[in-house]
Design a protein that fits this description.
Chain lengths: 419, 397
Amino acid sequence: MSSTLSKIEKRTAYTLLLPAICLIFAIILFPIFANIWISFKEVGLKDIRIPEPRAKKIVRNIQDKNSELKIIYKLRNSSLIQDIREVRFSDKYPKNIKPINLDNRCEFKSKKIKCFFGDWEAGYRENFEIIVKDTSNNAINSQNIKSIKPNLYGKSDNILLTTDFTLQNFKNVFLNNNFFELLMTTFYFTFFGTLGAILLGIFAAQLVNQKFYGRSFMRSILLFPYVGPVVALAYTWTLLLDPNSGTINSLLVSYGIIEKPINLLGQKYLIFSILGFELKLRLALTTVIFFEIWRYFPLAFLFILARLQAIPKDLYEAADVDGAGPFRKFFYITLPQITAILSILFMIRFIWNFNKFEDIFLLTGGASGTLTLPISVYQQGFAVSNIGMGSAVSIVIVLLLITFMIIYFKLIGKKANEV
Amino acid sequence: MKYKSLIITLFGSSIFLATIICIWKIMATLQGLSFTDLNFNFSLLLSLGLTIISILIGNKLNHLLKIFILSLLFTILYTFISESSPLWFSVGIFLLALFFTDRLKKYDFKYLNQDFISEKIVFEFLSLFAIVFFALVILFPFYIMFVTSFKTQTALLINPLDLSIDFSKDIFEIFKSYFVIFKTYDFGRYILTSSYVSIGTVLITLFFAIPAAYAVARLNFFGKTFLSTSILIIYMFPAIVLVIPLYTVFSQLGLRNSIEGLLIVYTATTLPVAIYMLQGYFRSIPKEIEEAGLIDGQNWFGIIIKIIIPLSLPAIASVSLYVFMIAWNEFLFSLMFLDNPKTFTLSRAINHLTGDAETPRQYLMAGSVIVTLPILLIFVYFEKYLVSGLTAGSVKG
């Protein structure tokens, strides 16, 4: 190919890619870095609104005078914590209408009134009045005046763009007594959720890989939990597990299997004894993990099934000749063939379960011992309204994620390309 | 005679029959029958008897006649000894027994005497258990969601286990929750918003992804491998770490509570996987076709529109369905960005319903059915395309 053609090729490639790359950078890469910036600042939810000068226009008739009207502008600073500097105001009036008591901060020129109000401190309020008169002494249509909206401009600091930084957020995150527990809960949830989903996925794939009546139906319904919207499924399960009149508790009670309903999602520990040992089970966390397994095993199933169907049939035929049973076939043929895909699946699912937010949020909201890192981001940022703290937790998540990814690429990055 | 395989068959089959009878009993309880005992041991014993007789009779009787007589006998015994129950419950028991004895046909003495058979029998019964287990575990919540939406608050309070639908009521009464959801809670608007957002996301994603995927698949340029791997790595970063910066920026730009804001975010988050999936397919198209197009005087855009798109319709369908599903089910961003009921999507609206503890659960379930049904129907109808999309995109989820 000549050099001009390859130049054209390059230029075309960049034009084709540019829109997508810009969007991805703006919405995904930029926020990851913005997190670092915000996490070093003390910002609350209420601080992020930029203060604006606002005016509400009220038009009143004056008694006995048809040709005059009183206009009241209710001026205020929208922010209760920040000042606005150099506020400018302008409004338009219809033809022939002129103000008669002009404030010295204002001037009137060609149907337009312009004012300079100076600086407004936080929470500033003023009722600014103007009386207008029709120069030809006709009655004024107040609707005409009301329909025009006044314009206001002012300068203010955006708290996100200032350069005062603090380490307070990170101190709060790491020195908090619960940080270790938070980390452990996240790891429990991630590890057991991933492991369970993969085990169940192997069973399901092994099942569907056989021939039986209704097999394709089975394959479709196995994907239902993943395809269904998380909101609907989480609320259905909350309803099923509800201690007061949930179906599962009612069933167990009515068949006499348990005496009192168990609050599966609201009870932190379940204490029971086996052989004299007292054991404490994280009940709510276990329930959430089971929901997680239920919802995400279909993905493991899909992956494993695809791999199973690619295993050469003659391997099994050879085993048949040797008289190997189904279990021996599974452990000596199937399992070695799928270990590569299982390790990839484990890493990928581990990373994704680590970040899971919706499921826990909808089931327990992070209560009764189910607080994980992603839920903590939400709680700090939006429930406690401390954006800076939320960002600091996000940074912790990103750092851990990068560690996982490095491990992933070191361990099985090469294998991933082979499969 | 191999006693090992015989004993395994007896145990496996009788536990299996007893289990499905217990499940049938639980299902009957949910239709309003008040049983207080599962009677597992009793059904186990009865099933054992049935299996023994069935194997003993073997082929000495006509198969149809045999299973009919045995099932009838089983049903009569079961009904007489257990608690009183309506006729349809016994009919169910009869059908289960019929299905079961039919399955047992295979297990005659000849089959049990084969070499290495015992392991195979264990495996066969485990598969049967697995089918029942998976079907139950998956379909049960969907079933509960569906039937609860047809109940009334008082009926649920009186007996939370009675989930039967009363067909004697008029149609308006049966579908009352749905009428209320649409009238009082304005769900018609949310369905429109959700469809608009999902379809919009699909179109915009395709518009950006097709050219980008073509560039990655076919053209040579500086930084190509770096770009394609970094796109996948970016894809691994979860929504939760993006949410706070996006929230602050969107608040300041006035993009919160707007459909446009959601469209931008959804498109950006689905773009990486769309590019990844499409470029894989584009590579499989023979290069010669494009070269022929080049000779005919087409430029790159002409090639994309006239050659690449028509040839890769299946892949485009997969990507579209996958992106549609992601956008329709998305919850986190809609929770963060929308707090004005006028801009709610379906997921956000259902979450808003639960904010009020007084909201009756049948309304909640009616809303859940409304959001679940379209996506399940689409899935069942376009399963082939969606499954290939899911497999490619399943690194995320």
